[in-house]
Design goal:
- The structure is a single chain.
- The protein is an all-alpha fold.
- It has a single domain (2-131), classed as Serine Threonine Protein Phosphatase 5, Tetratricopeptide repeat, CATH 1.25.40.
- It has helices at 2-7, 23-36, 40-54, 59-75, 79-94, 99-111, 119-131.
- This is Tetratricopeptide repeat protein.
- InterPro entries: TPR-like_helical_dom_sf.
């Protein structure tokens, strides 16, 4: 997907699967795929690229990619940074009516289970419990 998109030039006929995809969406999708196959560095890079492309215009997509970046950082063993990044996603989720935004925060929390005894993880769980508004 990334290669096909990168090789496309203005005026080329677009493949049907790309109808509404731009560089940020492609980076986001690629990041999810990289994370699923254990390529945390590539996943983090893609999440960073997606976030730069989404900006404030797409708050739901931005929130998802903040969490995806945090998940990738857990995969890299960068627990402090992962939790710091995930904290940014909580107020973002509170501004959305998306169940998926909350589910992603839950998935991030589940990924921390291997580090559950770490004080930072306990603090994260407490923070999430107090800062995340109940689903609308």
């Amino acid at each position: 997907m990334e290669t096909t998109f990168a090789l496309a030039t203005h005026g080329d006929e677009e493949p049907s699967w790309i109808s509404n995809l731009g560089p940020a969406e492609i980076a986001a999708e690629a990041g999810c795929a990289w994370r699923m196959i254990g390529e945390a560095r590539r996943a983090a890079d893609c999440a960073r690229e997606a976030l730069a492309g989404f900006g404030a215009a797409y708050p739901r997509s931005a929130q998802f990619n903040v969490v995806h970046k945090a998940q990738a950082l857990v995969g890299l063993g960068e627990l402090d940074e992962a939790v710091a990044v995930a904290r940014r996603a909580v107020p973002m989720a509170n501004g959305l009516t998306s169940r998926r935004a909350r589910a992603l925060l839950g998935a991030f929390t589940a990924e921390l289970s291997a580090h559950r005894a770490h004080p930072l993880v306990r603090e994260w769980r407490e923070y999430l419990g107090s800062a995340l508004n109940p689903a609308a």
